[in-house]
Amino acid sequence: EAAVTQSPRNKVAVTGGKVTLSCNQTNNHNNMYWYRQDTGHGLRLIHYSYGAGSTEKGDIPDGYKASRPSQENFSLILELATPSQTSVYFCASGDWGVYAEQFFGPGTRLTVL
Amino acid sequence: GDSVTQKQGQVTLSEDDFLFINCTYSTTTYPTLLWYVQYPGQGPQLLLKVTTANNKGISRGFEATYDKGTTSFHLQKASVQESDSAVYFCALVDVQGGRALIFGTGTTVSVSP
């Protein structure tokens, strides 16, 4: 069954450290997305990608970088983690269909101390 | 830019009660409106999609309707069950942003037996 997986599922980092969140999809979708979920904000778009080698800024990209080395993999990188980046991060994949259904991974809970 | 507003943060019901959740949206393009549901420890999953073509979507006993005049869309279910306890998000497809999703802030629905 097609799926989106994320690793790690939980991560504790220190302020100023580097954090990499990984996402893998077996849906063969062109588009991939990174969102963060915070109480009172719903899910907000950080970065997205149209395919291997492409990354685009979403609504809240500051402090984050993204990398799409292949169709299947999409990473979110926090070069200098800050406590304000404590959140739950979701990766999703989707394609260009009319209804734009996106399939989400299980999420990564990141705590920055 | 495009936006979605979802004001009901929490809804508490008993089994067999009627559920109604309302969202409003703002966009300059043709809207594609979606409802996602999120269960504890999981990523959001698509529940229903609504387009102006049919103005209504139905799935798993849930019904989604759309009102262009008031730029609002609604999710309802005639008789909820305890298993419907979850967080429900309305979402708008951002056609300018790689077909990413613009989410409402979510409504936590708690159903007691």
Summary?
The complex is a heterodimer of chains A (113) and B (113). Chain A has no helices and eleven strands. Chain A is mostly beta strands.
Description:
The complex is a heterodimer of chains A (113) and B (113). Helix content of chain A is 0%, strand content 51%. Chain A is globular. The model of chain A has no long low-confidence stretch (mean pLDDT 94). Helix content of chain B is 0%, strand content 58%. Chain B contains no helices and eleven strands. The mean pLDDT of chain B is 90. In chain B, a hairpin with a 5-residue loop joins strand 9 and strand 10. In chain B, strands 2, 4, 5, 9, 10 and 11 form a six-stranded mixed β-sheet that branches. In chain B, strands 1-3-8-7-6 form a five-stranded antiparallel β-sheet, with no helix packed on it. With 113 residues, chain B is mainly beta. The termini of chain B are far apart. Chains A and B meet through strand 4, strand 5, strand 9 and strand 10 of A and strand 5, strand 9 and strand 10 of B.
Q: Overall 3D geometry of chain B?
A: globular
Poorly predicted ranges of chain B: none
Average predicted local confidence, pLDDT of chain A: 94
The proportion of strand residues of chain B reads over 45%
The number of E-state strands of chain B comes to 11
Order of H and E elements of chain A: EEEEEEEEEEE
**Major sheet attributes of chain B:** 6 strands, mixed
Q: Structural class of the secondary structure composition of chain B?
A: mainly beta
Oligomer: heterodimer
How many helices of chain A? 0
Portion in strands of chain A: over 45%
| Number of helical stretches of at least 4 residues of chain B | 0
Q: Choose one word for the global shape of chain A.
A: globular
Report helical residue fraction of chain A: under 10%
Low-confidence stretches of chain A: none
First-residue to last-residue Cα separation of chain B: 42 Å
Calculate Rg of chain A over CA atoms: 13 Å
Structural class of chain A: mainly beta
